[in-house]
Amino acid sequence: MNGFSFLLKMLLVGLFIFITAGCSVTTREVGSDEQVIYDEGYHFSDKKAIVEDMVTSLLSKHPLLRATDRPVLIVYGIANRTSEHVSTSAMTDDMRQVLLNSGRVRFVNKLQRKNIKKETSYQYGGSVAAETRIEKARQVGAQFMLTGTLRSIEKKQPRQFRLKKKTLMYYSLNMELTDIQTGLIEWADSAEVIREASKPFIGW
Amino acid sequence: MPRLFARHRSRLLVGRKPGILIIIFFQKAGFGFILRPGFRFLSLVLFLIFLNGCAGRLNKASRYYYAGQPQQALNLLEKGDNLGNRNQLLFLLEKGLVFHQLGEYQQSINQFLAAAQLIDQFEVTRLSEQAGSLVTNEWMMRYRGEYSERLWVHSYLMMNYLLLGEYDDALVEAKQALERLQKHPEALNADYFTRALIALCFANLAEDNDAYLVYRNLAKDLPSPAPIAADIVKHAERLGMVDEVEKYRPFLTPKNPLGEAELVLFVASGRIPLKRPGNVVLPPSIRFAFPYYSAEKAAQPRINILPHSWRYRPLLTTDLGVVARKALDARKTRMIAKEGIRVAAKEAISQSVGNKNDVAAEAIVRVALFLLEEPDTRSWQTLPGRLTLVRIPLPAGRHKLQLEIQSTGFDRRHIIELPEILLRQGQRVFQSVRF
What is the pLDDT of residues A80-124, one digit of tens each? Predict the structure, then answer.
């Protein structure tokens, strides 16, 4: 074996080690405040920013601004009208939590209605001591309904002769607080996220 | 060391063709035995057997599926592709459809979402893969799915989400399907079923404007707008488009049944034609290989609802074979260009081997490369031949219906029992049927 063939063999071995080293698993902790964005799509940091904006607006404007009786709200969810599978219930869960922590509103638990009914039936089924049973027809009716719509508009660069493709993504969350008795929209606001990303057409 | 390189570089690189450089590289690295004509021939034949064997599990699963054994098909597909990930997309597509057939819609969604994600990754062209396929064949490439198959991933996702009552997610898929349609309109416009399904996803969430736009564009491509005239009129009325209402009202037939609620059936029948290998051979050993779909037509089944008191709205149906053929035609130019480059590359390799060795070595290489030129006939095999949208307006209440099917391809009448449904006023319920 001459020096040159030895060198080529070493080159092949080196290349193999380089490729396999790139395949090793790495992990790192990411703080909840840290912005980690891989592409133009919806990210968890967007949810955090949107929720903060909405809650601040809701608490600092009519009708909740001067409310002293801790009005009762019900969440009817956020409709997803984007072209991505986004968990909008995660947004409303976070909003409800921040609003509850403010101590200025209360919420009806819509999701647990079936279970509340089931538990009530059980308590009145004969197994529970009468003095410990909850009273029927004592649930609180909601005064306001919180709803919203998440929309997105995507704009892609036309496919011309270039090595990268740019995509512009626009997200808008519109939220409303409706007075259930009057049917009037008492508060409405929106939050927006606009992001541009570029992806290569060609890879190795 | 640099001197060593410089000494060899002058001898190796100057005036050499790339094919020769690869040969010299292996010889100098001490792996020269790989390049001996006999060994090369053996390697190429083994490689060919290896590539053809890769699709074996998919073909076997398809045979199980059409023999009425979807669970066995699934068991086989679950084992996956043990020879690399070139067929990963096909495994996901086949599993997604088999899960759908078994009524496991969430599992089906998981497979199809993974498939959609993989298709997005294919937007990046991998040079290493392209280079490899240029001197071998298309089987070297990861299967990327035809334009039609990429659309049907979203069709099945829409159906799955509607069947699960997850209408927001069905709408997400409708939007992604629209994007696919807009990318390749000529190839995919004949998929009336998917387009009607997209409109239905919009209509289901009272997105009147989008539903109206999809229906109106569909009306332009249908032989007659009659099957969707009622939908256009309804959405146009809600949007206050008086002229559009007047335009489409004449297409409303008095037979158009009305109801308080609706049962929507996704009826899949037959099987999609398989891709066939096509060849053009030119002397001395040039072979152009290409896949094509045979011109089979999927029979249009005759559907009756039992009891006969219930009638359905005009049917919207897609012959999947027709759309698949159009989609394959749409990428014909690209296919021919690549085939031309491959033929040139193989001819260059044969000639360079001939120049370096004797005539016998060149002949062996020519035969091996000729045999290696295999058309890529991989496809999504468990797809039906036809998808039909059956909309049955019904009054609110409990219903137990049967589907009576007669098709030219079937000798006898088929009766399919539908699960009992309880319909509320204004409710739309979805069910999937395959025969």
Answer: 999 899 889 999 999 999 999 999 999 999 999 999 999 999 999
* A165, A201, A204 member nearest B128 (Cβ): A204
The Cα B146–Cα B144 span in angstroms is: 7
Is B126 in Cβ contact with A199 (below 8 Å)? no
Find the closest chain B residue to A89 by CA distance.
B168
Strand B386-394 to A164-179 pairing? unpaired
- Beta bridge partners of residue A154, listed in sequence order: A169
Q: How many CB pairs under 8 A join A and B?
A: 54
Q: Are B202 and B215 in contact (CB under 8 A)?
A: no
* Adjacency order of strands within the sheet including B402-406: B302-306, B402-406, B414-417
pTM (two decimals): 0.80
d(CA B128, nearest CA chain A) in Å:
6
Q: How far apart are the C-alpha atoms of B176 and B24, rounded to whole Å?
A: 50
CA distances from B402 to A172, B391, B399, B405, B434 (A): 46, 14, 10, 10, 14
**CA dist., res. B319 & res. B298, Å (int):** 6
DSSP annotation of B377 reads: -
φ, ψ for residue B403, nearest 5 deg = -110, 120
B392 pairs with which residues across the strands? B263
Give the C-alpha separation, B211 to B235, whole Å. 7
Q: What are the pLDDT digits (tens) for A15-42?
A: 666 555 555 566 677 676 676 666 666 7
Question: Among candidates B153, B56, B61, which has minimal Cα distance to B100?
Answer: B153
> Which ipTM was obtained for this model?
0.70
**How far, in Å, CA of A63 to CA of B332, rounded?**
63
Which residues lie closer than 8 Å to B185 by C-beta, 6 or more apart?
none
Instruction: Count Cβ neighbours within 10 Å for each residue of B11-22 and write b for 16 or more, e otherwise.
Output: eeeeeeeebbee
Check: CB of residue B285 under 8 Å from CB of residue B370: yes
Closest residue, chain B, to A201 (C-alpha): B124
